[in-house]
Q: What sequence folds into this?
């Protein structure tokens, strides 16, 4: 039976559900973004560490000699 | 030489004379309304992309009524109620716009084509500036989409019709078309026309709402441009593919819309220039043109004489007004959450209507403070509005239309 009271209840349910799904989607987006950023910065750090490594080794070997 | 009767020669006038006075008056009114839409569209008061084809369609279809047989009146534009294979094949060969209606309109394809185009011109990266804040605004801006539903039921519409007209509050006309086709096919023409009519007025109406609800010193808050991250295309594609898939999984009934939007976004971010030009140009504007033309042609005298039309006009306006108010309240909520550093004008952009509301927000902020640049955040709220609207459409259609297993 379609009634005004029923419509109000349905409205509350729909709004709550839409808000929950939308916010979960937003958090999901946020965390995907954070994870991608972290992976990127880790990769950059690894890259710079690899780039610095031969120089350090070279300096160390020079020191030993 | 055969005897020539003036009224046989000019059948548009003959049918007007022969028909019910109310129908004749409605035809004259709609012809005048169509002409005024063209004029206001060309002048820039109303959205010209929709209003010019819609206006010429309305004027032409209401003028061009003829005798299809000795007793039947009609047009050779379109027959929206034709059903059954035989009848359909007949009208497809007679009515010149019937193929477009049958193959793109009645199945919602045209709404999906518009969504592909919107996706291709939307930079989803703006949403990644502050996804949660943008979504809070977008959810608040759905106030009209939900509050209008019980109001419409209280005023005598059934649940499906009420949900279809409430979708006007989402300020996303292709979404309104799609939802009303699924929920209230009998009312989809007036509902979609109401949506397009009011949406073309948002550019004129929302600035007053912003000025009414937000004092000038808050409208001029400058946003910190340094907080805008540089989002790579790969990140945007990752976001689009995951979000699109999850939303399709949750709401299969709105999956064509989600897919259409995100395929546009992905094509853009993948840098496939040929497709971007095609979707964002030919498809978007071609679909918008035919959408306007078809809506105009479908707006015959009988449509306006439906007593529900006045109710739809009232409810449509209420929905958009409530969504605008909700969006600004959302802007205030984020303003408080952010420690009063967020410009609440951005809230209006959560109403969606890409990119009109974002432009309105920027224009109002700039008018209050010429150094206030809020467009990236407003676009983020706008894109979030598209997603939240699609979610609500999905819920409405799933709950009210799709049969339970």
A:
């Amino acid at each position: 039976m379609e009634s005004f009271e029923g419509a109000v209840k349905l409205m509350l349910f729909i709004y709550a559900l839409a808000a929950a799904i939308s916010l979960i989607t937003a958090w999901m987006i946020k965390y995907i973004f954070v994870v991608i950023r972290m992976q990127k910065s880790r990769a950059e750090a690894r890259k710079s560490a690899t780039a610095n490594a031969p120089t350090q080794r070279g300096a160390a070997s020079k020191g030993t000699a | 030489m055969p005897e020539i009767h003036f009224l046989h020669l000019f059948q548009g006038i003959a049918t007007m004379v022969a028909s019910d006075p109310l129908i004749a008056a409605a035809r004259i009114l709609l012809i005048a309304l169509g002409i005024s839409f063209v004029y206001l569209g060309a002048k820039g008061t109303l959205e010209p992309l929709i209003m010019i084809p819609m206006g010429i369609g309305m004027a032409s279809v209401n003028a061009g009524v003829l005798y299809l047989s000795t007793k039947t009146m009609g047009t050779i534009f379109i027959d929206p109620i034709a059903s059954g294979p035989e009848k359909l094949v007949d009208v497809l060969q007679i009515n010149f716009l019937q193929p477009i209606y049958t193959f793109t309109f009645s199945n919602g394809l045209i709404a999906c084509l518009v969504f592909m185009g919107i996706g291709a011109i939307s930079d989803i990266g703006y949403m990644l500036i502050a996804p949660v804040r943008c979504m809070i605004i977008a959810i608040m801006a759905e106030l009209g989409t939900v509050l209008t539903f019980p109001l419409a039921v209280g005023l005598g519409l059934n649940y499906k019709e009420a949900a279809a007209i409430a979708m006007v509050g989402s300020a996303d006309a292709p979404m309104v078309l799609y939802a009303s086709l699924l929920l209230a096919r009998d009312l989809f023409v007036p509902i979609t026309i109401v949506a397009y009519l009011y949406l073309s007025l948002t550019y004129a109406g929302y600035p007053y709402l912003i000025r009414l609800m937000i004092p000038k010193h808050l409208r001029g808050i400058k946003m910190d441009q340094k907080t805008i991250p540089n989002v790579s295309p790969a990140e945007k594609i990752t976001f689009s593919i995951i979000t699109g898939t999850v939303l399709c999984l949750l709401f299969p009934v709105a999956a064509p819309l989600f897919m259409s939007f995100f395929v546009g976004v992905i094509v853009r971010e993948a840098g496939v220039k040929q497709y971007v030009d095609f979707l964002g140009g030919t498809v978007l504007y071609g679909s918008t043109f035919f959408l306007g033309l078809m809506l105009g042609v479908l707006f015959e005298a009988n449509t306006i004489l439906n007593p529900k039309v006045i109710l739809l006009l009232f409810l449509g306006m209420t929905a958009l007004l409530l969504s605008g108010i909700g969006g600004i309240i959302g802007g205030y909520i984020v303003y408080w959450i952010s420690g009063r550093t967020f410009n609440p004008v951005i809230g209006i952009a959560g109403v969606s209507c890409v990119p009109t509301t974002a432009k309105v927000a920027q224009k109002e902020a700039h008018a209050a403070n010429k150094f206030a640049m809020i467009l990236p955040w407003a676009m983020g709220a706008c894109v979030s509005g598209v997603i939240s609207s699609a979610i609500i459409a999905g819920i409405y259609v799933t709950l009210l239309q799709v049969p339970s297993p």
In short: The beta strands of chain B are 66-67, 73-74. Chain B touches chain A at residues 127-128, 131-132, 134-136, 138-139, 142, 146-147, 149-150, 153-154, 158-159, 162, 229, 231, 234-235, 238-239, 242-243, 246-247, 250, 384, 387-388, 391-392, 395-396, 399 (CB under 8 Å).
